[in-house]
């Protein structure tokens, strides 16, 4: 089976999932490449994906599971027995049940599972003084992702029908890991540094930031702690202070490599 159309679907507040998806697509060398960036929202009605399109879905791991916002937004996609490659991107700690959770969801929504992968991206909580997988995906990750894309196409080209696919054994457990209760918290803004350019409002995927009493206000009840505003503020005025940063830097600095299920 030959696929000339590739469709990327990604939720990616700090861009590592998006970069990984594009690197995989590079290895597929499609004639037509389309994208559905669900970082800032989704269409109001169902999007049907036809069987002549190969779809790559890339999302971040939050707490060993798929980001809840991504899971919720993915509901609009209906795969009409279309082949899919689920991809999770995690910050060098672990992806636990996230890849299985994503794969199960896509199959339940009508997609056919071809291959899957877990890749590494700079941790949302990484800071200059306490780096965690800083700069990833890097050149090596990029090459591995592109090679993975190539291998997926090679696998499909050996088939005459998707029904010939063998069941894919993906790492992860069901029932999925139960996440701990999340403490409401959001980044804070330094009033000395902030110029009120409002860029953080634009990059927030859940509209948690607004101006209240002439100051930038981040609603802790809405914030998903993705750290997009922290990484993208041009003045470095946003900080997210969490004890997890030091713990992750200390315990999860040893480089992990992508795990591929082809
Ligand atoms: C709330 C939250 C929870 C996270 N949980 C994990 C985790 O369980 N394991 C891990 O390795 N990385 C974890 N990360 C890091 C992200 O998975 C990682 O930085 C990813 O590359 C972000 O993807 P994006 O750049 O597409 O937004 C977490 C990040 C956030 C914001
Ligand atoms: S992006 Fe930074 S400088 Fe601009 S309004 Fe937000 S906190 Fe202030
Ligand atoms: S306010 Fe929260 S949800 Fe919005 S960009 Fe910042 S960390 Fe992400």
Tell me about this structure.
By secondary structure, the protein is α/β, with parallel strands linked by helices. It has two domains: 5-176 and 254-261, Rossmann fold (3-Layer(aba) Sandwich); 188-241, Alpha-Beta Plaits, CATH 3.30.70.20. The chain has helices at 16-28, 68-74, 98-108, 139-157, 199-203, 228-232, 243-251, and strands at 5-10, 32-37, 47-49, 53-62, 65-66, 77-79, 83-90, 112-113, 116-120, 188-189, 209-212, 215-218, 238-239, 259-261. Strands 1, 2, 4, 5, 7, 8, 9 and 14 form an eight-stranded mixed sheet that branches. Strands 3-6 form a two-stranded parallel ribbon. Strand 7, helix 3 (98-108) and strand 8 form a beta-alpha-beta unit. Helix 1 packs across helix 4 (139-157). The radius of gyration is 19 Å and the shape is globular. Bound molecules: flavin mononucleotide (FMN) and iron/sulfur cluster (2 copies). One iron/sulfur cluster binds next to helix 5.
